[in-house]
């Protein structure tokens, strides 16, 4: 695994937990430039968009997670919740 | 129905005799929600009013249906499908608007994502009543937390009747009450 990618992912998660969703999106977009195939990245991105109440973008991100990993439980749950809201 | 109502009965509502035996007149309000056949809903409404029921609320399918229901004494007519379609159209037209409830021709309640311009300010700093003539009646907020497996999830917090010191943050959903024309101004921020 790329250390820089991991650090950005962790920082993104930190920002999500701090309710700084805009900042989370910025760092996760930087991480995306390193690895576009990581489901956790898109799951966190989906969470950040969900936190911002940007439902369309959140749904797109969770769908991307499920393309990369159809068994991703968290993405499945969040997507279902967003669709049914 | 168990758990929702204290008593439920399965019967043919078009059977006037059956309704009388049931003691329907002891009830304050009847809701006629069957919409499959217009004729049945009209007949039931008529029966209920003739039996002396004080308030009968009926679901209508069309304007003509509504007109007849009014003639036979319906006290309130609702168009659930049309009302839902209007609310859905409103939310599709603007992804920032989650819901809109029309209280009257003039007043409404809107549920919308806080516009960027209003973020990181307290309600007293925003002066919503003075500037926009709307009242923020609640704030919905997603609070992130960590699950035992290390993943992150949200729980929703609702601040009902927020005070002047409450700060609005990114992603908050504001529930506001006001004149429709003033709510529209906020939509455009």
Task: Give an account of the 3D structure.
The complex is a heterodimer of chains A (85) and B (189). In chain A, α3 packs antiparallel against α4 (55-68). Chain A is built from 5 helices and no strands. Chain A has one domain (3-84): Alpha Horseshoe (Serine Threonine Protein Phosphatase 5, Tetratricopeptide repeat), CATH 1.25.40. Chain A is mostly helical and 85 residues long. Chain A is globular, with a radius of gyration of 12 Å. Chain B has 189 residues and is α+β, with helices and mostly antiparallel strands. Chain B folds into 2 domains: 16-78, 3-Layer(aba) Sandwich (Rossmann fold), CATH 3.40.50.720; 82-187, Alpha-Beta Plaits. Helix content of chain B is 32%, strand content 31%. Chain B is built from 7 helices and 10 strands. Chain B has helices at residues 16-22, 38-50, 63-71, 80-93, 123-126, 128-132, 180-187, and strands at 29-32, 55-59, 76-78, 97-102, 107-113, 121-122, 134-146, 152-160, 167-168, 173-179. In chain B, the strands form 3 sheets. In chain B, strands 4-5-10-7-8 form a 5-stranded antiparallel beta sheet. A 3-stranded parallel beta sheet of chain B has the order 1-2-3, with helices on one face. A two-stranded antiparallel ribbon of chain B has the order 6-9. The longest helix of chain B is centred in the middle third of the chain and has 14 residues, at 80-93. Chain B is elongated, with a radius of gyration of 23 Å. Chain B starts with 15 loop residues before the first helix and ends with a helix. Chain A binds chain B through residues 13, 16-17, 19-22, 44, 47, 50-56, 74, 85, and chain B through 95, 98, 113, 142-146, 151-154, 169-173.
């Amino acid at each position: 695994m790329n250390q820089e990618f991991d650090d950005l992912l962790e920082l993104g998660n930190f920002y999500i937990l701090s309710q700084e969703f805009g900042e989370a999106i910025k760092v996760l977009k930087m991480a995306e430039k390193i690895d576009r195939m990581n489901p956790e990245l898109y799951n966190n991105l989906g969470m950040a968009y969900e936190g911002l109440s940007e439902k369309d973008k959140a749904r797109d991100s969770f769908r991307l997670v499920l393309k990369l990993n159809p068994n991703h439980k968290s993405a499945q749950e969040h997507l279902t919740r967003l669709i049914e809201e | 129905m168990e758990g929702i109502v204290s008593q439920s009965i399965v019967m043919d509502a078009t059977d006037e005799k059956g309704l009388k035996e049931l003691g329907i007149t002891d009830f304050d309000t009847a809701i006629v929600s069957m919409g499959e056949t217009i004729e049945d809903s009209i007949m039931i409404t008529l029966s209920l009013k003739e039996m002396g029921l004080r308030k009968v609320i009926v679901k209508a399918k069309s304007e003509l249906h509504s007109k007849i229901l009014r003639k036979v004494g319906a006290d309130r007519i609702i168009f659930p499908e049309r009302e839902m379609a209007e609310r859905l159209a409103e939310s599709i037209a603007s992804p920032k608007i989650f819901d809109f409830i029309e209280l009257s021709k003039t007043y409404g309640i809107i549920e919308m994502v806080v516009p960027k311009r209003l973020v990181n300010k307290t309600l007293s700093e925003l002066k919503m009543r003075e500037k926009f003539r709307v009242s923020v009646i609640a704030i919905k907020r997603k609070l992130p937390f960590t699950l035992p497996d290390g993943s992150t999830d949200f729980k929703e917090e609702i601040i009902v009747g927020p005070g002047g010191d409450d700060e609005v943050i990114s992603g908050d959903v504001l529930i506001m009450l006001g004149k429709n024309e003033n709510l529209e101004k906020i939509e455009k921020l």
